[in-house]
Amino acid sequence: MLRRDFLARVTAVGASAGLGGGGNAFAYTPKKHRAPSPPPKQDRIAISTWSLRNYFRATRASNFNLPGPMLVLLDFPEMIVDRYNVHHLEVCASHFPSTEQAYLRELKYTLTHTRSTIVNLIVDIPECGREGTFSDPDHDERKAAVDAVKPWVDIAHTLGVKSVRVSPGKVDPENLAPAAESYRAVAIYALTKGVHVNVENMSDFGSERPEELVKLLRLVGEARVAALPDFGNFPDEPTRERGLKLLFGYTQTLCHAKGLEFDANGAETAYDFPHAMEIARQANFRGVYSIEFEGPGDPYAGIQKTLDELLKYL
Known about the structure:
Number of domains: 1
Radius of gyration: 19 Å
Mean pLDDT: 90
CATH class: Alpha Beta
Strand content: 5-15%
CATH superfamily: Divalent-metal-dependent TIM barrel enzymes
Helix content: 25-40%
Number of helices: 9
Order of helices and strands: HEHEHEHEHEHEHEHEH
Number of strands: 8
Strand order of the largest sheet: 6-5-4-3-2-1-8-7
Oligomer: single chain
Structural class: alpha/beta
């Protein structure tokens, strides 16, 4: 074993121990081989750590009872490459056990070793949650929230990540100015780091009325922020069609290919997946489809079913 590989193992064990785990907390034992390059279709696909959120200690639901060892982020890239032959990842901020430079160097080495890239960081911090202060009417609250986001832009820059997803928190749709001011501040900072800022259509903003999200993007400045369309985050098919057609006009780096429910033949049944893919194709979308599995049952199998659907329609 290479000395640096050994140090990576030691760092990972220490991180897992700090989260309450031990040396057996790894979900996967890396093979430490040089990973092959992905096939062309897989190069348009990413897998989000959110799909396996219940195997990360920070986001495990209290009622989750499926078997399987816990995951640590340092092992995630190689597990995804070996299991799914996918080399692009989307990573939640909450799944970083550390943001120290030493840890980031080890993660960057792991990405290089597996020929993997992180295409987007999901900045799921309290300031950008549903009750967060990123869009607060109070200027000082907003500034504190913006200051909390900026270190994640720095981390994206360090790891070579193209974009960060920042949620607006609690938004007043009648007054988008506070949210626009916060996004503008983050976007200007991110521009100096070569990082894009994405806004997703979430259940509490931009999904039932996607026009409001477009209005926010225009207020901030379309060159500064972009839409991150999520296939599954719409209440019905007419809104999904209208919303995806709108949002793909403002998309730069990626969208979310949501996995929810599948029939016996492996087809998505919760929404019209082929039609969502067709809308992306007609919009000339050339970015990455990031898999977010949120359905019942085994998430590893759910990721595979979502991946199979993507490969079918790409």
